[in-house]
Amino acid sequence: MRTRTREPRPAQPARKIGSPEPTVAAIVRAQTGAAWSRARDLCTEGRVTVDGQRCLDPASRVSPGAVVVVDERAPKLRSGALPESAIVFLDRDVVVVDKPVGMLSIAYEPGDKDTLLDCTRSLLRRMGGRGFRPELGVVHRLDKETSGLMVFARTMDAKRILDIQFRAHDIERVYHAIAHGEVAAQRVETHLITDRGDGLRGSYGHFRRPRGGVPLEAKRSVTHVRPIAPLAGATLVECRLETGRQHQIRIHMSELGHPLVGERVYIRDYTGRKIESVRPMLHARVLGFDHPRTGQRMSFEREAPDDFRAMIESLRVP
User: From CA 160, how far away is CA 173, in angstroms rounded?
Assistant: First the structure.
């Protein structure tokens, strides 16, 4: 395989990559020395080509003999658009959207653009015609690298009622994940804190021996874990949230000794063989709630994206 890198880094000599065929992100990382997140961003920003064609999918496999070029000075590609197929459900009260990998749910810092919130507004504006001004209320979030279902409120009443359901943990949220090792069915209940003692979010008493009672700021967190299929060195699991805290599934699975494939943060204590992935393998598959106006129970389901399914196939036990 021959690979080249344009300025600001000098080109690297061509070298052979062994089987199985590497991902684009793996090649970018090997040639630039960038972190996984940066290697992935270079792809999604349109700064990587394979045989002269822009490659936006960092998880795509590169065939032997292909030429990969990384141009860190190339103009950043900004699509700012969602396909209409991303809209799972739409009425005057709510919109359910299938969030792609690599897109922020909402802006976290000034200058964050092309978020799912922005792109959904733009799509609804295109669908609604000239003069249509969609207003969307945020009631929950997904991590940037997590794919799957999210709901936005389209009225103040809908936002208020959905907020109540989320606070009462009446929302159905089922995730599929690929976790290291052989995972058993279990119910995990801990109290999550922002600093477990080493600067990371985690469960109170997991990293350090607890002193006194549970802190007031700790949040009760419950995850129901069920194995779906054994894989080579991993398990495809279902994680059903009873509560929904930031990074809850990633933290709980890591503390069980089964960090997600692709985990970069909550994996310090894991000593087993790590399976390479450009992102944590986590997909929000099922979302259910009571419709804020009619009260009817609604449930939606979307398959995992291509990179998730490709990872399953690559680890499939014969």
Answer: 19
Q: DSSP state, 100?
A: P
Burial 185-218 (b: 16+ CB within 10 A, else e): eeebebbbbeebeeebbbbbbbbeeeeeeeeeeb
Residue 130 has a pLDDT of: 54
Q: Write down the catalytic residue from 143, 157, 170, 198.
A: 143
Which is nearest to 270 in space by CA: 314, 234, 229, 239? 234
Tell me the three state secondary structure of residue 151: strand
User: What is the per-residue DSSP string for 215-236?
Assistant: -TT-EEEEEEEEEEEEETTEEE
> Is 136 exposed, middle or buried, given 0-12, 13-18 or 19+ CB atoms closer than 10 A?
buried
Cis amide bond preceding 20, omega within 30:
yes
pLDDT in tens, 160-201: 999 999 999 999 999 999 999 999 999 999 999 999 888 889
Look at the block and give the residue holding tokens 């606070």: 167
Which token pair is 162? 């959905």
* Distance of alpha carbon 43 from alpha carbon 309, whole angstroms: 20
At residue 19's C-alpha, the angle toward residues 263 and 253, to 5°, is 15
Q: What are phi and psi of 240, to 5 degrees?
A: -105, 120
114 annotated active-site: no
Residue ranges in the chain whose pLDDT is less than 70 = 1-20, 77-81, 129-133
CB environment 271-289: b (16+ within 10 A), e (fewer) = eeeebebbbbbbbbbbbbb
Rounded Cα–Cα distance for residues 250 and 218 (Å):
17
Q: What is the DSSP string of 106-119?
A: S--STT--S-HHHH
Neighbours of 114 (CB within 10 A): 16
User: pTM value?
Assistant: 0.77
Query: What letter would DSSP give residue 269?
Result: T
Secondary structure element (H or E) that encloses residue 239, with its range: strand 234-241
